[in-house]
Amino acid sequence: MSRAQCPRCLRPQSHCLCKLIPQLDSRTKVLLLQHPSEVNHALNTARLAALGLINAELVVGEVFVDLDVLLNPPGYQARLLFPGDDAQLIQSGAASDDSLPLLLVVPDGTWRKARKLLHLNPLLAQLPRVTLPEGAVSRYRLRKAPGPGALSTLEAIVQALEILEAPTSFAPLLRPFEALIEGQIEAMGAQTYQRNHLSTL
């Protein structure tokens, strides 16, 4: 028999995160395009971001038939948060008062799945790209990062918004994320965590 699930955060009712999820506003609009394989992942950080940001939207799929509409909301200029040779470093003031605010488009999935989303959706791949400064350290302690500076989707969004909208802090978005990780570590047991995860860091 399956455990009762919170319909909002999709966590078991006994581990509901809703009380930790803030309601933060932002000038930047965040569009999360989530690969279907991530929807039921225990650490669905894109959903936490969408729930915690008032000006955010989460769309699940592989091919987005209405992508042209999604990428062109009135009053915004779209940028894809994804590394690439032509990606520009996100800078403070990129969403200043004298320019249109950004629509920050964020693919959510493994690196392979995210690249697949770009391949299947040419309009996505054609967007101007922005990327985060190097040297960020993830709090995602449950799996080894694929490379230096690799962040979860939620962490990447928080860092991007804190640069774009400085000095506003978006750190409260990380509270449910940290609670989620602590809960996973507690469920697996300290010894298992230390043996399988600490040794890989």
UniProtKB/TrEMBL annotation:
Residue ranges of the TM segments: none
Assigned EC number: 2.5.1.25
Listed SMART domains: DTW
Short name of any one Pfam family annotated for the protein: DTW
Database matches in InterPro entries: DTW, DTWD2/TAPT
Domain of life: Bacteria
Keyword annotations: S-adenosyl-L-methionine, Transferase, tRNA processing
Domain DTW: 2-189
Keyword tRNA processing: yes
Tagged with keyword S-adenosyl-L-methionine: yes
GO function term, MF aspect, one: tRNA-uridine aminocarboxypropyltransferase activity
Family: Belongs to the TDD superfamily. DTWD2 family.
Entry protein name: tRNA-uridine aminocarboxypropyltransferase
Organism of this sequence: Pseudomonas kulmbachensis
